[in-house]
Design goal:
Largest sheet of chain B: 7 strands, mixed
Number of strands of chain A: 8
Strand order of the largest sheet of chain A: 2-1-3-4-6-5-7-8
Distance between the termini of chain A: 47 Å
Number of helices of chain B: 12
CATH architecture of the largest domain in chain B: 3-Layer(aba) Sandwich
Chains: A alpha/beta, B alpha/beta, C alpha/beta
Structural class of chain A: alpha/beta
CATH topology of the largest domain in chain B: Rossmann fold
CATH topology of chain A: Rossmann fold
Structural class of chain B: alpha/beta
Oligomer: heterotrimer
CATH superfamily of chain A: Thiamin diphosphate (ThDP)-binding fold, Pyr/PP domains
Number of domains of chain A: 1
Order of helices and strands of chain A: HEEHEHHEHHEHEHHEE
CATH class of chain A: Alpha Beta
Number of domains of chain B: 2
Radius of gyration of chain A: 17 Å
Order of helices and strands of chain B: EHEHEHEHEHEHEHEEHEEHEEHEHEHE
Radius of gyration of chain B: 22 Å
Strand content of chain A: 15-25%
Helix content of chain B: 25-40%
Bound molecules: thiamine diphosphate, iron/sulfur cluster, magnesium ion
Number of helices of chain A: 9
């Protein structure tokens, strides 16, 4: 019998630590598929963040390094400067990238650092049990905004793509989601474009992926996908914000 | 004599650190401006492109230490530098370097603190450097040069030590050492570095490499820590460095590192011929600390006197080393104050004869500066 | 032999360059040297203080505690110099800018050189440091003048090359001045000038 779908070789066959319905596992599978399809296992170096995805290196059979909370863009810079012809990507959550690591991401983008950042936006701090993230939606309940995010006391959701797209050094900036098979495919295409951006040395690329965290959204996995479609994309519209230097939106 | 100076260059300590790093094969430097180490940043900005290396001015010391972490993970010889406040920001990264067993050389040209402090020489970051200012059971190898030539020699050695033990190494200087100029000979052999087996380079044709310090499975982290401590034991056995001056016959042994050690040598010279027997033990490696030599000297000496530009930080290590075998006195200046050789002599005279005001030395020679310093003795 | 020097002036009066140059020349002459810019609390308000030690033996502390020579370029610096003074110190004052409000009775060797005026006459006020150098070295003979001029020349390469002549002239004027006013009849040890 011929297998219709084979798990990518780069994806290690080990039990996952992600919760059911979590988006991190999906994005990492996409990364493994691309690495296999393009045959770039020997050239790719990944950075794991501090967040639920810290153990990304347990699943991807490539050279990887951890980075401290928020610092993957700096570490990626240090690696990329040594191996300018390798493909260097960082994988980061919203707390990691948009709170503690905001300085590093802005400056990596502004320097036109030839790296690709995969930014998993789940609007929550997953790993530390569901606190407010910079990307948490208005009225969204978290453990530190038990009555919901109130702009008067907690401020507003932070739009990373829109912000970074204003920087000259940012070359490819896109937002995708995992809410449907079609969107998952689009996410894969966007990551490919990101890798292509650095292979062709066109500068900094970032793909923001709206990613479900059913556990701390207190929803079923199915409702989580609906929440992305109906609520999250209101605040975070999908699309390409910068395409090889050209501003799109 | 004249000809021997021909190969010498007149460099600041900061410039010498940069040149020695290049000689040692370092081709990646990340830094952020802060006085009194700006000459190092500026020099690297000129020199790194000349030798085909990378200079990058980071957006902060936090970014600088993690860029260094990245290049270290990639297997390259890498350096960063700063002065006290910036080194405080780097502490998390130094803990990560130690936890991921990555080699990296970090230069700290200490300035006065706490807080913004000032830009004068200081030795008040001793605890931070030697005891580990970051979190966790880790150690940083800490080397303390006392001259511009020694800055060059120790920076070069620091890269070898960092590689050999896969551990961060800190060069602990101060504002004076960083900014003063002395003749330097860059006499060591230029190095080019091989990429180590463990580095992340892209897993072409081999099993993947992972650089990490996260051990979530119960027991793994403890096992890792036990291994780390074994490594540190080896460092303690093999890498202790120090200098002894006139310790053979000395009644009082001064203990000082870096700038203070030079001031103590000056004090020794001033009193030579007076009949006073004073010696100096100068720790060159602050971690590992020269405990054994101190213990040995404690058997013969009447007393030790630690001289520091701090409130008494290395003092604690000296006391721990000699335990109750011998009294340990202290003379220190803080917040940018630099002790003079006369102040040191006065302290020594005071230890020898607390009641008498004259010995062989004319007390009137001693300037009014005296008495400014922290000035206490501990008799166990 | 040891020469412990303090150079004090405003930033911009060329004391840094003067000190570095002298240190380099002494090094090439086979001496031990340390040159240390002190930003301590003793000199504030745009003033800069440099400690220069030249010796035939190993130099321990680079900090000058009492100076064999003090070169003072302006009034605020003049008020600070007593920290370093010994009765045997040689004091070189830029008399164009130093008013001498305070006197140091016990110090015999005081040389008042109108360095700023001389440099102005030559058309470049920045050369006042070389006037002082000329006067200083004529009295103290620390380094061979030809070697100093060689180093001066190589430090003024490229765009700055035209400045060499004026600096050399300033140096010679300082030398002449100190000879005429202070060393009348005294034989100096100095080698002839190129
Ligand atoms: C310096 C530091 N501060 C705080 C933490 C604790 N911490 C770990 S993960 C995390 C937030 C993770 O949220 P996010 O980046 O959104 O990732 P997610 O788990 O949601 O994927 C925090 C605050 C840490 N490890 N280090
Ligand atoms: S807590 Fe949320 S982000 Fe973390 S693994 Fe679970 S579902 Fe994923
Ligand atoms: Mg998150």
């Amino acid at each position: 019998m011929q297998a219709l779908y084979r798990a990518p070789e780069t994806l290690l066959r080990v039990p996952t630590h992600y919760c059911p319905g979590c988006g991190h596992g999906i994005v990492q599978r996409l990364l493994a598929e691309i690495i296999d399809e393009w045959g770039i296992r020997g050239k790719t170096i990944g950075l794991a963040p501090v967040g639920c995805a810290v153990l990304a290196y347990n699943y991807l059979d490539i050279d990887m390094s951890e980075a401290a909370h928020g610092r993957p863009p700096a570490v990626a810079t240090g690696i990329k400067r040594v191996y300018p012809d390798n493909i260097v990507f960082s994988y980061q959550g919203d707390g990691d990238l948009a709170a503690i690591g905001m300085a590093e991401i802005i400056h990596a983008a502004s320097r036109a650092e030839n790296i690709t950042v995969i930014f998993a936006n789940n609007a929550i701090y997953g790993m530390t049990n569901g606190q407010l993230a910079p990307t948490t939606l208005l009225n969204q309940r978290t453990t530190t905004t038990p009555e919901g995010r109130n702009p008067l006391t907690h401020g507003y959701p932070l739009r990373v793509c829109e912000l970074l797209a204003t920087l000259d050094g940012a070359s490819f900036i896109a937002r995708t989601s995992l809410s449907s098979p079609k969107n998952v495919l689009q996410t894969k295409e966007a990551i490919k474009k990101g890798f292509k951006t650095q292979i062709e040395k066109k500068g900094f690329s970032l793909i923001e992926v709206l990613s479900p965290c059913p556990v701390y959204w207190r929803m079923s996995p199915v409702d989580s996908l609906k929440f992305i479609e109906e609520k999250m994309t209101q605040t975070y519209p999908l699309g390409v914000f910068k395409d090889w230097g050209k501003k799109e939106l | 004599m004249k000809s021997s100076n021909n190969k010498k260059q007149l460099l600041t300590g900061n410039e010498a650190a940069a040149e020695a790093a290049i000689l040692a094969g370092c081709r990646y430097y990340y830094g952020y401006p802060i006085t009194p180490q700006n000459e190092l940043v500026n020099h690297m900005a000129i020199r790194m492109p000349q030798v085909g290396g990378t200079f990058l001015q980071a957006e902060s010391e936090i970014a600088a230490i993690y860029m260094a972490y990245g290049s270290a993970a990639a297997g390259a010889r890498v350096m960063t530098s700063s002065s006290s406040p910036g080194i405080s920001l780097m502490q998390e990264g130094i803990s990560y370097l130690a936890g991921s067993e990555l080699p990296c050389v970090i230069v700290n040209m200490q300035r006065g603190g706490p807080g913004l402090g000032d830009i004068s020489p200081s030795q008040a970051d001793y605890f931070q450097a030697v005891k580990g200012g970051g979190h966790g059971d880790y150690r940083t190898i800490v080397l303390a040069p006392a001259s511009v030539q020694e800055i060059a020699d120790l920076v070069y050695d620091a890269f070898d030590l960092a590689d050999r033990y896969r551990n961060p190494v800190m060069l602990l200087g101060d504002a004076q050492l960083g900014q003063m100029m002395e003749p330097v000979e860059l006499k060591k052999i230029p190095r080019t570095q091989q990429t180590p087996r463990w580095a992340v380079t892209g897993a072409e044709g081999r099993a993947r490499n992972i650089i990490k310090s996260f051990y979530p499975v119960k027991g793994e982290l403890e096992a890792f820590n036990i291994r780390l401590q074994r490594k540190y034991k080896v460092v303690e056995q093999k890498e202790v460095r120090y200098e002894e001056v006139n310790t053979e016959r000395a009644e009082i042994i001064l203990v000082a590192y870096g700038t203070c050690a030079r001031i103590c040598k000056e004090a020794l010279r001033r009193i030579s011929g007076t009949g006073l027997q004073i010696g100096l033990l100068r720790p060159i490696s602050l971690w590992p600390f020269p405990k054994e030599p101190l213990r040995r000297l404690a058997k013969k000496a009447k007393a030790f006197c630690v001289v520091e530009m701090s409130s008494g930080q290395m003092l604690e290590d000296v006391k721990l080393a000699v335990l109750n075998r011998c009294p340990v006195h202290f003379y220190g200046r803080m917040g940018g104050g630099v002790p003079s050789s006369k102040e040191v002599i006065k302290k020594v005279l005071n230890i020898l004869a607390p009641e008498e005001s004259t010995l062989e030395l004319e007390m009137s020679e001693i300037s009014q500066e005296l008495g400014k310093g922290l000035y206490f003795s501990t008799i166990p | 032999m040891i020469e412990r020097m303090i150079l004090i002036g405003y930033g911009g009066q060329g004391m840094m360059l003067f000190g570095r140059l002298l240190a380099r020349v002494a090094m090439l002459d086979g001496k031990q040297v340390t040159f240390f810019p002190s930003y301590g609390t003793e000199v504030r308000g745009g003033a800069a203080c440099y400690h220069l030690i030249v010796s035939t033996e190993e130099i321990f502390s680079p900090v000058v505690e009492e100076a064999d020579t003090i070169i003072v370029m302006n009034q605020p610096s003049y008020l600070k110099l007593k920290n370093y003074l010994m009765p045997s110190s040689h004091l070189f004052l830029n008399s164009s800018l130093v008013k001498e409000a305070e006197s140091f009775g016990e110090v015999k060797n005081i040389y008042r050189i109108p360095a700023t005026e001389i440099a102005n006459e030559l058309g470049n006020v920045v050369a006042s440091n070389m006037v002082m150098m000329g006067a200083y070295n004529t009295v103290k003979n620390l380094v061979p003048l030809p070697l100093f001029l060689d180093c001066l020349k190589s430090s003024l390469s490229g765009r700055k090359a035209p400045l060499f002549e004026i600096n050399k002239l300033a140096l010679l004027r300082g030398k002449e001045y100190v000879k005429k006013v202070y060393l009348k009849g005294e034989k100096t040890l100095e080698v002839s000038v190129v």
